[in-house]
Amino acid sequence: MPSSTITRISLPIHVRGGFVKLADFKIEQVSSPSKDQLTDNQVLLRPIYYSIDPYQRGRIAGVKGSFIESYSEGAAITNILVATVVASASADYQAGDLVIDNDGKWETEYITEARAISKAPTQYSADPKDHVGVLGMAAFSAYVGATVLAKPKAGETILVSSASGGVGQMVVQLAKARGLRVVGVAGSDDKVEFVKSIGADVAFNYKTCGNYAEAIKTAAPEGIDIWFDNVGGEYLDAALAHINTHARIIICGAITQYNLSSPDERYGVKCLTSVLIKKATIHGFIIDEYYDTPTHVAFYEEVSQLYRAGKITYRLSETEGLESAPQAFLDLFTGKNFGRSIVKA
Predict the structure, then answer these.
(1) Which residue from 69, 116, 185, 233 could staple onto 256, CB 3.0 to 4.6 Å apart?
(2) How far is it, in rounded angstroms, from Cα 244 to Cα 210?
(3) What are the tens digits of pLDDT across the range 181-239?
(4) Which contacts of 59-63 are long-range, i.e. CB under 8 A and separated by 24 or more positions?
């Protein structure tokens, strides 16, 4: 029998600027949904793992015109999750199916439309954790950026920011597997050691390295062919000052710009002339457009094989209980997380 109540986390009001606080989230117990409430083509889901991602900051802000809709005030927060089907009124799903919901609710059980979910590709892994981890969105973003858009060539140098995070750690390993010289940047000494342990030729701590531009020059004296950027701001500027001819700059994130108090605080990039002089390419991307494509299949096949063979390590920062999700989210912006952040239901 289902419990009489479930946990639900919502956003009472948008947080426009500055850092989000725990008090900005509402954690409550609400009535449990039941299979008797299902209408045609609906399913009742019980999440197993929730993904915690920096891009959610924009949704919390109530920004309009972004690549994804903002959260509605008072409604449950949503994000990628892996769940099991508890009950189904759809011919496409049955109880026990393992599914992925890319906009699943931060509730311990909920009802959604069957068209909103997809079956987890269990032929690549039967472990639910892997579908928000090593085979999840962050790892896929790394694959698209580092192997498809960056067009890497053996012998080139790639610089990777947030190299111990969910995206960065996969970029490091995929680049190394393709014969690149890898320079990783992380925010603590233990994270730097981890980045080295997974294949980076050089890694440094951006918090203690002194002048960031000089640290890049020391780590990559022959310049940068690929800059895989997860942080933006002054770090992007410093990297642009050291790019080689025909460099590729892959913009995957800009976490330094997500918690500004006002638009006036946005960092204005100063080294764009380097892009012209070096005939470089800047390529921003949103991973959604690569889902359900041959690239997605290629990712699953390559990464699952490497992972099963022990040739890829994927570190997770896992907390337990949906009520811990808000703090896990806040930790993304202070560096307290180490690896890909997920919450076990």
Answers:
(1) 233
(2) 23
(3) 999 999 999 999 999 999 999 999 999 999 999 999 999 999 999 999 999 999 999 99
(4) 60/11, 60/14, 60/15, 60/20, 60/24, 61/14, 61/15, 61/16, 61/17, 62/14, 62/16
**163: which 2 tokens?**
């190299």
Q: Do 144 and 136 contact (CB within 8 A), yes or no?
A: no
Q: Sign of the CA dihedral 311, 316, 321, 325?
A: negative
Tokens 């100063």 appear where?
270
Spacing of C-alpha 97 from chain mean position: 25
Contact 242, 213 (CB under 8 A): yes
For residue 76, which amino acid is it?
Answer: A
Instruction: Please give the single-letter amino acid code of residue 169.
Output: Q
Structure tokens at 35: 């299979």
3 pLDDT higher than 80: no
Please tell me the pTM assigned to this model: 0.95
Structure tokens at 17: 């600027």
160 and 172 in contact (C-beta within 8 Å)? yes
Determine the Cα–Cα distance for residues 33 and 265; give it in Å rounded to an integer. Answer: 44
Distance CA 291, CA 293 (A): 6
- d(CA 4, CA 35) in angstroms, rounded, equals 13
pLDDT in tens, 199-212: 999 999 999 999 99
Work out the pLDDT band at 1, boundaries 50, 70, 90: very low
CA nearest to 54, candidates 161, 154, 152: 161
Indicate the DSSP class of residue 64. S
CA distances from 130 to 98, 300, 330, 344 (A): 12, 11, 23, 12
Q: In the Cβ-directed half-sphere of 23, how many Cα atoms lie within 13 Å?
A: 1
